[in-house]
Design goal:
Layout (H helix, E strand, L loop, with lengths): L6 E3 L6 E3 L10 E5 L9 E8 L9 E3 L4 E7 L1 E6 L2 E6 L2 E5 L6 E6 L4 E8 L7 E3 L4 E4 L2 E4 L14 E3 L6 E4 L7 E6 L9 E8 L10 E2 L4 E7 L2 E5 L2 E5 L3 E5 L6 E5 L3 E8 L5 E4 L4 E4 L2 E4 L1
Antiparallel strand pairs: 1-23, 2-3, 3-4, 4-11, 5-12, 6-9, 6-11, 7-8, 7-10, 9-15, 12-13, 13-14, 16-17, 17-18, 18-25, 19-26, 20-23, 20-25, 21-22, 21-24, 26-27, 27-28
Length: 291
Amino acid sequence: MSWPSCVVHVWDLPGEKRPRFLPPKGVGSILRTLSDPTGLTRMGVHLRAAEPGLAGTARHFHVVEEEWAFVVAGQGTVRIGPHHVPVRAGSFVALPPGPRPHHFLAEGPAPLVVLEGGERRPKEDFGYYVDLGMTFRVGKLEKWSDPPPPEEGDVSQCVHVDDVPAVHFQHDVDPRARRAMRALHIPTGLTRQAVYWAHVEAGARSTAFHFHEHTDEWVFILTGRASARVGDATFEVGPHDFLGHPAGGPAHVMEALEPLTYLVGGEINPADVVLYPDARLRRTGGRLEPL
């Protein structure tokens, strides 16, 4: 199958062993980077797999960047500050910046597979490996001179997708664009990153053919198959395919060939502008107007 550069099948990507710089006992995972090969620059998205009995990362937190994680497969525990919360496929964890040190522990007979992402603000951001006495910045790791603030955290940062109410959405630009949506970021405390679970019935479209001028967007297929249109290209996508749609990139849409479930996310930016080339419309500040 010939695909444009905006789409990858995650298991076709090379896996990199983590951690790269620190060998703390009990920590180890295989990381696949999804955002870079699909052209995203404003956010990072990865797939991380930790073997049973291991943590995916050393406990850490960011001072500026928001992070999030969705459990794709397996079971385990997420530790957020003083809290230990069981997770399984369908669990979503929001990680706002601040002293909420966290990591996932893989338990059970199979690897814990987690889709994870967050902002890219390298000039502003830094963070702490709280159990190692280290701070980190892009390309720099050193012992901290001052310890981080006391640990915080809240079990409400973790939800299961089944416990988030579904809202049925009918697009105002394309009447065939109908989906059920669960907003995962809202009850868990994210303000700059949006993550939705979405379901589209066979024959319906995910959205109107569109692109964002100022925000990156991504899609990760959970179940089902769809015909995807990106710019002038049309191709089929299915489970564990990932699509990256950079700000200002080609317009895109999916039409479900069978019941389709996926995650979709991007930046929350009130100044964003959405363009609908087929409909010759533009949305600015929630208002539709002709192009």
